[in-house]
Amino acid sequence: MGPGPRRLHPSLAAVLGAAAVSALAGLAACERIEDFGRYDGPNRLVPAVTHPAVERDLAEIRATGTIRMLTRYNATSYFVHRGGEAGFDFELFQRFARSLDLALEVVIPEPGEDLVSLLNSGAGDVICAGLTQSPDLERYVAATRPVGFVHKVVVLPPADTRPATLEGLAGLTITVPAHDPFLIELSNLRDRSGLDFAVQPGLPLVESEELVARVARGELPATVADDAVVEAVRSYLESEVRIGPVLSENQPVVWLVRRNCPQLRAALNGYLKDNFQLLPGGRENRSQDYGIIYDRYFRNPHTIRTFQQEIDRPDKSGRISRYDALVFRQARRHDLDWRLVSALIYQESRFYPRAVSKAGAQGLMQVLPYVAGPQADSLFVPAANLRAGLRLLKGTWDGFAYLDSLERIRFTLAAYHAGNGHVTDARRLAMEMERDPNRWEGSLAEALPRLAQRRWYSDLRHGYYRGDETVRYVEEIVNRYRMYTRLVPLELDLTAMDADPLAAGEVDSVAFAARPEPD
């Protein structure tokens, strides 16, 4: 996925050879690599779960209606921006999920969890985290065809004058992201070359782009990163960095699946082949969609800088939208989690207060005027829209009080989207299928799509309905809500937020009239 071919220094090529993974002896400040498990002696890493513990290939995934992507929270694979989900891997994989009419759930490992173990245990279906192909990892998982290609490069402070050769690394301490398998390769390179440079892992939650920024600020003497990531980070750094030796030839970036998932791997390979191929001579052939996504995260300085705006990143600002204070206050009156309400609002309107659906639903929470009550004539006013929408949501929420928390959330969202009638039909159908009508996974999530099939809906009270859309709607909101709960607190300090008069939401703004509706 790099910006262009780079030449590998001959001495580096000789040292690396075919030995991609080797000893970690002498690794300075050695820490546990969170994403790949524990060290088994000096030669390899072993995940906590080494073999598939579930049978969940593409057929089983399609039956549930949801595919789960395992990734890391960073500026290239996955992050939350302006309330929505973003990232190169996320967008590319989301298109794959949509091509199969599947909802996408994103799974981020907790501290101490490794991605391969989460995959093999069934917590996720595909690892999409910008990982380069690694023989060590492929003892335990299967790799797809390449998603792209990168070079590993040494990143130095701008004032560093050492030669850009392997010999120029002598005396240097190089910090590598703790989750990057190249940590092993670089240690092996050092040992084979006989040069005296130190290799150390960064802290477990520190990503590559942050290490590059720290080198630019003079806080670290060097790091190693993908060339594409370095070029992207350069577009928003206040200080420049210098590119040192190139440490690898073109390395394929791959996605990873369980070894017992040949159907899923074949489907992913077909999708990737349609979107990205390396042609003879090293030229890359990209589909239009792939090219647009790639440029957005790695080549377009404007979009890259936009993604770094703190106010639009809840992980940097603690803020989801400009309406946080308003949503927080109104949701609290109804004893609802404001982050769940915000996740729903994003799904409905992308926080655009003048959104109108084809069915005539209006405003932030997409409320139909005929059910809005006193707010029917003011649904473009954010506060009024929230009063109407939350009144409807709270009534539905209270109706499912007998369910446990996650089931209650999913059933409430399903009824908000599909209406109580279609949800009731789906529950009756679930009972005919001998499933628990009070469960979502394996029951209502499988019954709802059948409402679009005549053999199932013909005897039901409310008839035909595209229930697969409701399943995706519910799962996407639940996934977004999970991310919000990791990034922003349940309780808010409203002092600074109250300084924005529009965020109070009591008045409409003509400024919105010229603003385009979201896609």
In short:
With 519 residues, the protein is an alpha+beta fold. Helix content is 38%, strand content 13%.
Write the layout of secondary structure elements.
Layout: H1 10-16, E1 38-40, E2 44-46, H2 58-64, E3 66-70, E4 79-81, E5 84-86, H3 88-99, E6 103-107, H4 115-121, E7 126-132, E8 142-143, E9 148-150, E10 152-156, E11 173-176, H5 182-193, E12 198-201, H6 208-216, E13 223-226, H7 227-234, E14 242-246, E15 251-257, H8 262-275, E16 276-278, E17 284-286, H9 288-298, H10 301-307, H11 314-317, H12 324-333, H13 338-349, H14 382-399, H15 405-418, H16 420-432, H17 440-447, H18 454-457, H19 467-487
Parallel strand pairs: 3-6, 3-7, 11-12
Antiparallel strand pairs: 1-2, 4-5, 7-15, 8-15, 9-15, 10-13, 10-14, 16-17
Report on the architecture of this protein.
With 519 residues, the protein is an alpha+beta fold. The chain folds into 3 domains: 126 residues, Periplasmic binding protein-like II (D-Maltodextrin-Binding Protein, domain 2), CATH 3.40.190; 147 residues, D-Maltodextrin-Binding Protein, domain 2 (3-Layer(aba) Sandwich), CATH 3.40.190; 191 residues, Lysozyme, CATH 1.10.530. It is built from 19 helices and 17 strands. The strands form 6 sheets. Strands 3, 6, 7, 8, 9 and 15 form a 6-stranded mixed beta sheet that branches. A hairpin with a 2-residue loop joins strand 4 and strand 5. Helix 12 runs parallel beside helix 14 and helix 15 crosses helix 16. The radius of gyration is 25 Å and the shape is globular. The relative contact order is 0.12.
